[in-house]
Specification:
With 352 residues, the chain is α+β, with helices and mostly antiparallel strands. The protein has two domains: 7-154, Ubiquitin Conjugating Enzyme; 193-296, no CATH class. It is built from ten helices and five strands. The chain has helices at residues 28-44, 138-149, 161-166, 169-189, 196-218, 244-247, 256-273, 288-296, 303-319, 326-334, and strands spanning 7-10, 50-55, 61-67, 78-84, 95-98. Strands 1-2-3-4-5 form a five-stranded mixed beta sheet. The chain is globular.
Length: 352
Amino acid sequence: MEQFPQFDVVSDFSDHKFISTATSYLPRAATRAVMKEWKILEKNLPAGSVFVRAYDSRVDLLRAAIVGPQKTPYHDGLFFFDFQFPPNYPDAPPKAHYWSFGRYLNPNLYENGLVCLSLLNTWRGPKETRWQPGVSTMLQVLVSIQALVLNHAPLHNEPMLLVKLWTTSSTYNDAAFVLSCRTMLSLLRRPPRGFGRLLEHHFRARAHAILTACQVYLNGFARVGDYEYDERRRRRAPRLFASEEEEQQRRVSVNSDFKRLLKIEYKALVIAFSKYDPSLKGFSDELERMVDDAVKSSIPPGIFCSLSLLFRKCWEWMVGWRACNVGASVMEIWRFKAVPYVKLKSTVKPFH
């Protein structure tokens, strides 16, 4: 990971979310504030877990990659965020956009890219947690996302009481891990500009850790987010089923929907990671029959997913976060894309 600088100024911002924003010009005061942010980021980014790219011809833009923290359902994943500094920066916080690929894997990270965080003034938190001109920094935003958003129990951040009553933290974590795996695959298919080398280095180093975690969770050796990879396991070939000896070590029950979905993602991850780790080549063939059986025996998704997203859509409509009339809101709720346990076959795409 040392080969990829944590902070750098580059020139290619062609796929940035805010590239077409009309307010790209920054006054002198805002530019000075951004230059100060660059210096802070260059010296103080958390080692090996946050990577930032600024742009020489568009100082108002920024892109960050955050590695999912260990002991969370987001461990070993990469999460990308695009930022834009407004003309009145630092009096106002930067705009933020999360690379969601249309997935809702955290109460604070919406499928439309919205980052719901009081520090960004996108959530009504206490005054001391909101953006404070001259005090708050871009570094604080990144660290807050890593520590407070990508945490061990993301369900606790869910504002809808009914969602909390309907599901459990472990069920939510299961779904978050599956969607995190899908996000890895989406990033490998469409790497953000300027971060291709990071993806290659990261997944070459963490491929075995991710696949081993899948095996651990599928076989019930640990709950999602409780497992920490042991480098000594790297010598073993990744596999999906537990041995008879390991079966006796089973600790937790495994949700059947979660098991079916993760088996599919596991195969796709093996195929994708084999590009970076030669030891995985050919291994995916052994999973073909098992995955096909899992798809054939799949059952309709649990009702929690539908109600969870339905409650959240209703909440967004009621507080007016999305400007639309009643009819459009009802149709949006009706056509929602369910989150965790849906579209079993849609995520298995070949890697060439």
